[in-house]
Amino acid sequence: MSSSLHDASPRRYLMCPPAHFMVTYSINPWMDPAKPVDLPLAMTQWEDLRDRFRSLGHTVELLDPLPGLPDMVFAANGATVIDGRVFLARFAHREREPEAVAHHDWFRSAGFTEIGEPVHINEGEGDFAVTSSYLLAGRGFRSSTLSHDEAQEFFGRPVIGLDLIDPRFYHLDTALSVLDDAADEVMYYPGAFSPGSRAVLRRLFPNALIASERDAVAFGLNAVSDGRHVLLPQAAVGLFEPLRDRGWEPIGMDLGELLKGGGSVKCCTQELRP
Ligand code: ARG
C-alpha cells in the first residue's frame, strides 16, 4: 500500500519533568519498587521527547513537579481538554490523588475558565481518547463507568465505553492510540479489550491498524500523533512499517526508564485542545 503523507497541525501539550520520578509503590503490573530507576537517564529521555515536540513546531507547557508525587511525570492523567474546556481527573489511587490539585492550579493560572471538577473516578487522557466523532472511554481498572456519563455531559460528545480486561493495559492509552483525530483513525491491540468492546472497535474503525501483542507490550500504542508524525516507543518495531504504509511518519523514542512506572510517550503528554 502506498499513500501520501498526512498533514501535521501545531499542537499544545502539557508535560511535567520527572524530577521526582521513582517507583516506590506498585499500582500497575509494570511497577516493581525493587527495580532501580536511573533518574538522570529518565530526565534525559523525557527531555528528548519534549525537545522533539518543540522541534516539530508544537508548544510544550510545563507543570511544576512536586516532591512525593513520583507519577506526576505522567501528565496525561491529570485532565482531558477539548475545545478549551478542562475536565479534571479524580485518581483511583490515594498515592496520585494530589496530582489532580496540581493540574487544577495549573489550569487556573494558565487562564482556563471552563474547568469541570469530576464527582467520579477518571484518570484523564489515560482513559479518554478523542476522535472527531467520539470520546472513547476506557474502564475496568481505573476510570469508573459513571465518569463516562459525566464526561459526555461535560463535553457534549458521544462517549463510547470500552472494557479493558488485561491488567497490563490498565489505561485505554496503553491499548489504543488515535492517529488522526480529524478522521477517526486509530490503532489498537484487540487482546486488551472484552469481546464486546472488540466488536465495537471493529464496527467503528474497520480500517484500524491492528497491533500485535508484542508491540503492545512494548507500549507501542502509547503514542502521540500530530496528524502526521507519530511519536512512539522505538521498541515497538512492528508498528513502524504499517504506519509508514498508511502515510504516517513514525518517530521512535526511548522512554525506557519511565516504562518502569508503566508509562511512555502518551502518558507523559497531555494535549490541550483549543
Ligand atoms: N504509574 C502510573 C499509574 O499507574 C502510570 C500512569 C501512566 N499513564 C498513562 N496515561 N497510562 O497510574
Structure overview:
The protein is an alpha/beta fold and 274 residues long. The chain has a single domain, classed as 5-stranded Propeller (L-arginine/glycine Amidinotransferase, Chain A), CATH 3.75.10.10. It has seven helices and 15 strands. It has a three-stranded mixed beta sheet with strand order 2-1-15, with helices on one face. The radius of gyration is 17 Å and the shape is globular. The relative contact order is 0.19. The structure holds arginine.
Summarize the structure.
The chain has 274 residues and is α/β, with parallel strands linked by helices.
Task: Name some characteristics of this structure.
3-stranded mixed sheet, alpha/beta, single chain, 7 helices, binds arginine, 274 residues, L-arginine/glycine Amidinotransferase, Chain A
Topology:
Blueprint: E1 12-15, H1 39-55, E2 59-62, E3 79-82, E4 85-88, H2 97-109, E5 115-116, E6 128-130, E7 135-139, H3 145-155, E8 159-163, E9 176-180, E10 185-188, H4 195-204, E11 209-210, H5 213-217, E12 224-225, E13 229-233, H6 240-245, E14 249-253, H7 256-259, E15 270-271
Parallel strand pairs: 1-2, 4-5, 7-8, 10-11, 13-14
Antiparallel strand pairs: 1-15, 3-4, 6-7, 9-10, 12-13
The protein binds arginine (ARG).
Arginine binds next to loops.
Nearest-angstrom radius of gyration? 17 Å
Give the low-pLDDT segments.
none
State the helix count.
7
What is the CATH top level name?
Alpha Beta
The CATH homology group name: L-arginine/glycine Amidinotransferase, Chain A
CATH architecture term? 5-stranded Propeller
What ligands does this structure carry? Answer: arginine
Describe the global form: globular
Number of domains: 1
Overall average residue pLDDT: 97
- Read across the widest sheet, the strand sequence of neighbours is 2-1-15
* Total beta-strand segments: 15
Q: What is the beta-strand fraction?
A: 15-25%
How far apart are the termini?
34 Å
Secondary-structure element order, as H and E? EHEEEHEEEHEEEHEHEEHEHE
Characterize the main sheet: 3 strands, mixed
Please estimate the helix content. 10-25%
**Class derived from helix and strand content:** alpha/beta
CATH fold group: L-arginine/glycine Amidinotransferase, Chain A
